[in-house]
Specification:
alpha/beta; about 10% strand; 4-stranded parallel sheet; 11 helices
């Protein structure tokens, strides 16, 4: 789905695909959702306009057994406020030479998804006010390794300021404070453990960044991403 469209547009797309893909089939489905995908899945399952479980009982949609949220910013992602810096993603890649694809959903232009991801946004406030489905197993997996250290961030900001107009200086300094704060908190570098949490939902932490907890960053890597065995275990009978 496009990273920069509204989350509601993506959950509508997901809903329609579920109807189309599972038409006429009677089966159970487990949803494993990473990052913003978890918000999309939650919205699809809890928005009364979709009436997912009512349509499931009618046989139009599959039954959901498990919903596993991996690195999902349930309480928002502070970096979303910097989505207007189209230069940031490239500079992250050029300077750190590390994983940067996790920024796609936050820094793709000025799309509506970035607004929805802001802590306290209208979308998140409404989503978090809805009760979670009580008849399916919901689990949260959160990472606790930052992709950079606090000492790297000032150097990165300096490089960034050399590429951007001087009038953006106040925003880059706010970005610096945000990144330093995130590097010092428990989280995956993008989503803090506090943001991943949902009241009443079990949370498991793994040693990985926002990206490496669910996949490897190179084809040759033999490493098993730490969230994968957990997901398999959670879906086991």
């Amino acid at each position: 789905y496009p990273n920069d469209q509204s989350i509601k547009a993506s959950s509508t797309f997901f809903f329609n695909q579920m109807i189309s893909y599972f038409a006429g089939e009677k089966r159970a489905v487990s949803i494993v959702a990473h990052s913003m995908g978890g918000l999309i899945a939650r919205d699809m399952l809890t928005d009364p306009l979709f009436a997912y479980f009512q349509k499931s009982e009618q046989g139009r949609l599959p039954r959901i057994d498990h919903l596993i949220l991996v690195g999902t910013p349930n309480q928002g992602a502070p970096l979303a406020q910097f989505r207007f810096f189209t230069e940031i993603r490239d500079q992250f890649h050029n300077f750190f030479h590390k994983e940067t694809s996790w920024l796609n959903g936050l820094l793709d232009g000025t799309g509506e998804a970035g607004i929805d991801l802001l802590p306290g946004s209208r979308f998140l406030t409404e989503l978090n006010s809805r009760p979670l489905p009580s008849h399916i197993d919901i689990q949260v997996i959160a990472g606790r390794v930052s992709p950079w250290s606090a000492s790297e961030i000032p150097i990165f900001i300096q490089h960034l300021e050399q590429k951007l107009p001087r009038e953006t200086r106040p925003a880059t300094r706010t970005l610096e404070r945000t990144l330093v704060s995130m590097s010092r908190s428990i989280g995956d570098g993008l989503v803090s453990v506090a943001s991943a949490q949902l009241n009443g939902v079990p949370l498991t932490m793994v040693q990985g960044t926002h990206l490496t907890m669910i996949r490897n960053t190179s084809v040759s890597s033999q490493r098993i991403p730490p969230a994968v065995p957990l997901v398999i275990k959670m879906m086991s009978p």
